[in-house]
Amino acid sequence: GASAAEAFENSTVGYAYNDFILLPGHIYFSSDQVSLDTHVSRRVALKTPLVSSPMDTVTESAMAIHMALHGGLGIVHYNNTIREQKKEVDRVKRYENGFITDPKTLSPEHTIADARAIKSRYGFMGIPITENGKMYSRLLGIVTNRDIEFIRDPNTKLGDVMTRDLVTAREGIGLDEAYAIVKESKKGKLPIVNERFELVGLVARTDILKNRDFPNATKDRVGKKLLCGAAIGTRVEDRERLEALVEVGVDLIVLDSSQGDSVFQLEMLRHIKSKYSHVEVICGNVVTTTQAYHLLKAGADGLRIGMGCGSICTTQEVMACGRPQATAVYQVSKLAREYGVPTIADGGVSSIGHIIKGLACGASCVMMGSMLAGTEEAPGDYFYKDGVRLKKYRGMGSAEAMQKGSAVRYFSEDDRIFVAQGVSGAVVDKGSLRRYLPYLINGIKHGFQDLGVPSLMELHNRLYNGKLRFQIRTLAGQLEGAVHSLYTYERSAV
Ligand code: XMP
């Protein structure tokens, strides 16, 4: 095997993750001792080097909350109105483990059929009834299974059957205290109300058993709130968006562009740095050292690397621009390291092995779209096709997404004719992040163990001192390393 660094330095060939394989090292520690501690930007440290992509089929509040709970970070997309994006970020910042902050609610005018529809869609019962059927409205009652199970007429109004005798708790109550009330009251749900008796949250009995602690959660030191990132564009209008996000406490801004080396991005970076110096700014995307140099010199707190390697990208085909991802990550990360700036390897990750390779090429974190789009916490509903449970996933430069407004990312803001740089499709159900993220994290740790490196920091040290060895694979080598010679009659689980 060759030193990975030397191979990247000396080759005129650009390598993709699948072009090479890392050589194993000596194991002298158990996999649970592996430390994945890293930074996503100068001042934001993570326990898990995973970031979710700002795409409208990947990151809204639920995704960002669970990424942060597991030690990673979510970047809320901006293919929506300023109000909508602000609300998503606000939800993440207000999140408290154990409290349901967006319970399904109905009004007394809704019917039993409406309540049953919620049960069959989300699988739970215990629906708070508020004056106007929404949160932050006066709480009137609660409808449980027992209130409606023997009633035949589906048009019966919930106002006529709901339980009015309520046990509630006041906003600000701690989780332990709330759980104590739930246990004592023997009720399934505990509505949380403010001083005007408006519903502001809910605690569920079933969550008491489910809720574990999240010792690795990405939180700020003072308020103990989860950290949250958000993406914006570089137009003048985006300054208004930025202001709204800062108001609700966004911690990190990603300047989202497929080609980040532009005067527009430099201007926006300077604007943010001068006005909101506490907010971290990640610039990109870049794939060359020249692009990176401009942004590093201007004070970027992090760099996002990748052009055209995403699973839904057609940028390389349409724009004739981009770079194979492994080489891009190596080159940019090496320069960024000199500035003490972390990097994110963005796109082209379709397995745990790719995550490890992205990190081995020098990235501080890996950003994923397609790997996460099939989880419960991604926006959108599941649907079935040929008996397979799927969720929609689309490129932000796809015709479909651009029609909704994301055209700015792809520099066609003034064009009447969109040139798509991405496609839409679907990905397979991956279940909840509550299980999927621990699975990914464990997998990464096992990979590090095989490499004989106990930490991400050590992996990078070995890369740069020439001790990380890898082998370029021929096509036959790649085929040999993948599943082969097998009659497949079952779809693989993940
Ligand atoms: P994965 O491979 O994780 O990639 O699905 C996600 C990343 O792809 C980028 N992205 C796009 N690139 N056209 C592109 O060329 C698009 O329409 C598009 N949408 C997203 C983005 O960097 C994302 O994080």
UniProtKB/TrEMBL annotation:
It comes from the Eukaryota. The active site is at 313 (thioimidate intermediate), 409 (proton acceptor). It is an enzyme of class 1 (oxidoreductase). It catalyses: IMP + NAD(+) + H2O = XMP + NADH + H(+). IMP binds at residues 311, 346-348, 369-370, 393-397, 421. Its cofactor is K(+). NAD(+) binds at residues 256-258, 306-308. GO terms for biological process: GMP biosynthetic process; GTP biosynthetic process. Its EC number is 1.1.1.205. GO terms for molecular function: IMP dehydrogenase activity; metal ion binding; nucleotide binding. K(+) binds at residues 308, 310, 313, 477. Belongs to the IMPDH/GMPR family. This is Inosine-5'-monophosphate dehydrogenase. It comes from Cyanidiococcus yangmingshanensis. The gene is IMPDH1. The chain holds residues 202 to 695 of 695 of the full protein.
